[in-house]
Structure formats: structure tokens, C-alpha cells
Here is the input.
Amino acid sequence: MAEAQENKLTQAQIEQLAEHCENAELQAYEITKITNDFPEMTYKDAFDIQWEIRRRKEARGNKIVGMKMGLTSWAKMAQMGVEHPCYGFLADYFSIPDGGEIKHDELIHPKIEAELAFVTKAPLKGPGVHIGDVLRATDFVMPAVEVIDSRYKDFKFDLKSVIADNSSSSRFIAGGTMKKAEELDLKNLGVVMEINGEVVQLGAGAAVLGHPASSVAMLANMLGERGEEIPAGTFIMIGAITAAVQVNKGDSFCVRYQDLGTVSGKFV
Here is the structure.
């Protein structure tokens, strides 16, 4: 993000907005987008709010178990009216076992996305990380389903607001089969999403910035702007291969991945 701008918010405002956004997540209620009240806030402010939410969780004893990219398809950026992908972190309690149950009442208006996850075996630090670096640093790739749940009313937000809201992170399920990146045709890898046995979405890996590894490279470069890196052993969800589909209480889903098995779950 070229705008490595300065902060316009004070540290006290950043902490207050982190508490505001995190409370909405923890207690499952809607808020209005924070740029309505703080139109002057910058991208740096937005990421500082997200990192403060992360700090709050770790201070409570939660572990950070991975990272995720969001808004990584051109279609998704257009759908949400934003101009750049974003990232968020995954906390331990976001993780649901494959085939497991997700409590709908703990969420506001959840949607599911079919994704892939890369797990690294070497650190990646931007700037200048590219697809080749990512593939060399990847231990294996596995399928994952992300449950996104914006805290913003009607799922409407701008890029700064969604970054501050940990990029709509709420739950995720990883499963299926693990494979080395070189064993997969990542660009053409097909996915089929079914809800209650009905096919609702189809997609292929190239939907994510042209190549799934591009998403991990972009994450490394964005983190590099803060002096952060992706450590070895990091689980990274790359963003949606399919459009996000709203789910209701009682819905079961199954996503089939070419060469990688299935990931499934149920909302209760």
C-alpha cells in the first residue's frame, strides 16, 4: 500500500476504536463503519487498530495461529467497492475442526468462502517478495474454508474500516489433504462449494490475484511495511477463490477441491 501514511488518530483513539471493534466481534453486534466518525483516519491508523486488537487478544491469553488475506479477487474488490486487498490475523478460537459445528449465534451475518492455505517452512520478509520466493518457502498447501463476518451494519464498509475490523475474520476450517505446492496446478485448481447438497459456487485458483502464491507475496510485502515478517511455520489463508455465500442456522456446507479432498461443516 503506497500510503504508508502517518497517523491522524491519537494512541488513545486507536485503543478506543480497537476496543469498540473487538467488543462488536466478541458480543456479535453490528456497528457503523468507523470512518463515518473518523473520516481523517489513514491506512496506518487502520492497521494500528487491527494490531491493537491482536495485542488485546494475546494479553488475554489467546494465541495467534495464522494470517489471512482478504479481498484478493478482482471481483471481490469490485463487489465491496475497495481498491486493494487487506490482511488480518487468525486467533486460536477461530479454528473449527473439519466437519465440525459453528455456532451461528456467536456471529452476526456470516458468509463462507472457499480458500487455500499455505504453510511456510522458511520466513518471508518484504519488500520485494514474489511468487517464486513464496513457492520456495512453502512447506505445503491445504484447503480451507473461511467464515467471514463483518461487524459493520449490512456488511457495508470501506477499506480502512474493514482493516480495523481485522478484515472480517471470525472462524475458519482447514482440512482435506496436504500437498507440496509443486504437486498442484495452483492457478487452475478447481473448487466446488455446496450448501445443503446444492452447488452454489465454482472457482479456480487463478481468481486470487492471478495465482494463489501472489496473495502470500503481497502479505509479506504489506507486513514488511511495518517491519514485520511471515515466520517459518505460518498458516496463511490466501483469500476467496469463490464469492462469499451467506449461511443460515442449520446449513451444512461441503467444499470440494481438485486433488485436495473436501472441507465441510455445519452452522448450528
